[in-house]
Amino acid sequence: MELLDQARAHVDSGAFFTELARLVAYPTVSDAPEGQEAIQAYLDEVLTPALTGLGCDVSQHPNPDPVGGPFLVGVRVESPELPTLLCYGHADVVGEAGEWSDGRDPWTLTADGDRWYGRGTADNKGQHLINLTALQLLLEARGKLGFNLKFLFETGEEIGSPGLDEFASQQKDLLEADVLIASDGPRLDAATPTLFLGARGGIRIDLDVDLRPGGAHSGNWGGILRNPATTLAAAIASLVDGHGRIQVPALLPPELPQSVREALADVVVDAPDEGWGDQRLGPAERLYGWNTLEVLALDAGNADRPVNAIPGRARAVLQLRYVAGTDVGDVTATVREHLASQGFPMIKVATEASFRASRTPVDDPWVVWARQALDAVVEKPVALLPSFGGGLPNHVFTDVLGLATLWLPHSYPGCLQHAPDEHLLAPVAREGLVLATALFGAFSSAPPTLRR
Asked: Which UniProt keyword terms apply here (predicted)?
């Protein structure tokens, strides 16, 4: 346990905080032109030295998609006979969504008790720094890792990982491994070590009821002129009712697999709104094992300064969050045909997909191995989530590279990762470094039967 004590001491001494402060100082915003220079500097000045310090040969690769930034890959081969671990992280962060509290600068790491504030602390710089540090501690203690290591960094996760699928397809030999272990997203809660196996996918659905150029007097035309806002409200209610229940079977998965149900049986989720969502399922099942259809935006007329007029146009943006197993072959046609059947053929439907849903089976041997390795170093149960609630490019690793995927998150749901005051909790970082060190340390002795 001496190595795990070193991991704890690395956080307690302030060394980890100092290192994280350096990473946060790079404004690596991927959706802004000015962020590209910072991203390149982050690859050259932070990640490349970190990987070479692990004995990796480092290569930088252009993105096959011109929208996306470059990829960075580090490879350390100790022996062809040893198992190979693939790790992943993303160098980019989101832009600023508003003012931070107490005059905080998002690019300066500041501590307030156990909260370490700064953009990227939780998503994803703090998380990949924990994993890089764990690997470094392991290498220093052993003089070797005991396995082969590959580490992939992308620079456009916050804009949907453009080009990652194609890059992985082109570089299958470079990225070939036995399993993926990575960190992103939140754990179940701040106090619960968590392992999740995949991610829900996301599809944006735009509804547009554009009936006439302008408004029409509600007194002179009310009752004989179709109101696009009323039409849109009814159309949305036919897709998802006022209690959050999807009304179109084709937008749901065929079933909740028994293995998923069993994995979530002991997972406790605080559901703040009683009666919301499909009540046939428990809160954890609804959050991690099922689909949701959310209304993200509505627009008709001017609610701040309404006038006595029937609006000429109404629009809405919805989002389908879906789990693996859902048929999303043509969501546009599904929604369009459903609305037409409800008497709303005048509504234009457009969709845009982001990450695809995917997950490693709950009973995969790598999952069993990882749970045993983590259970050996913690005194509390490790939560196993079949899917992360949000979106990640997990499908690239399961579908393109054919790997089992193990995600060990080092953040928590209240971290505000896409909002002002993003922060990392010091106790979670400390425990995360212990867990990552233990899991990587156990990888060298994983049973040969698990290897590809």
From this structure: Hydrolase, Metal-binding, Protease
- pLDDT less than 70: residues of the chain: none
pLDDT of residue 107: 97
Give the residue from 339, 355, 371 where a domain finishes: 355
Among 355, 371, 404, residue at a domain's last position: 355
**Residue 299 in contact with residue 291, Cβ under 8 Å?**
no
Under a CB-based contact definition with an 8 Å cutoff, are residues 86 and 173 in contact? no
| The pLDDT of residue 390 | 83
Judge if 229 and 125 occupy the same domain: no
Query: How are strands ordered across the β-sheet holding 110-112?
Result: 110-112, 115-117, 423-425
- Domain with residue 69: its CATH number is 3.40.630.10
What pLDDT sits at residue 389?
A: 84
pLDDT confidence of residue 98: 86
Sign (positive or negative) of CA dihedral 138, 143, 149, 155: positive
Same domain, 114 and 182: yes
State how beta strands 115-117 and 201-210 pair: unpaired
Residues 58 and 158 in one domain: yes
